């Protein structure tokens, strides 16, 4: 079977809109979240998955807490940032991360950027791209407890081709794609 991947980056709908689009089960699940934003994020990505794959899709979580489809062969990845949700649906294992470009990454840079990664580009968005790439690699690995400095690395960033090459531990390199949407960076694998 040919690999197929769909990426969706969409603004969060209002809670009223999302409740109208959600199943009773989803509304009950969302009611358990204390914040409106968290409820909206959860309902929004589920709405996207059901809209694209059908109302019969069943969503569960793996042992690391990542969402997965229980009755389908596709894989999903989910991320959210500010007022956007990113969802990837693929016939292959996949992952996605979205981050606001305006976030202050310099405060945590020493905990996730290796010296050689700092030299990959002079683009002012590099810190955000590195963070998002490492988040996507972490999700893709399905392994808990990875250290962003020791275990997850970015080998190449090509802003012109919107391509990134990363690596998890000593495993073969992983190709990622880069997209800028509104004031966000999106990095995805799949």
Structural features, described:
With 190 residues, the protein is an alpha+beta fold. It has 2 domains: 5-93, 4'-phosphopantetheinyl transferase domain (Ribosomal Protein L22, Chain A, Alpha-Beta Complex), CATH 3.90.470.20; 98-189, no CATH class. Helix 1 packs parallel to helix 3 (36-53) and helix 2 (24-31) runs antiparallel to helix 3. The mean pLDDT is 95. It has 6 helices and 10 strands. The strands form 3 sheets. It has a 5-stranded antiparallel beta sheet, covered by helices on one side. The chain is globular and about 50 Å long. It starts with a strand and ends with a strand.
Question: Nutshell version of this structure?
Answer:
By secondary structure, this protein is an alpha+beta fold.
Features of the shown structure:
10 strands; Ribosomal Protein L22, Chain A; alpha+beta; globular; 6 helices; 190 residues; 2 domains
What is the terminal-to-terminal distance? 15 Å
Total strands: 10
Unreliable runs, pLDDT <50, ≥5 residues?
A: none
Structural class: alpha+beta
The share of residues in extended strands comes to: 25-35%
Work out the radius of gyration.
17 Å
Secondary-structure blueprint:
Elements: E1 5-11, H1 15-21, H2 24-31, H3 36-53, E2 59-61, E3 67-69, E4 75-81, E5 84-90, E6 95-100, H4 109-112, H5 115-118, H6 126-141, E7 152-158, E8 163-168, E9 174-181, E10 184-189
Antiparallel strand pairs: 1-5, 2-3, 4-5, 6-10, 7-8, 8-9, 9-10
Helix pairs in contact: 1-3, 2-3
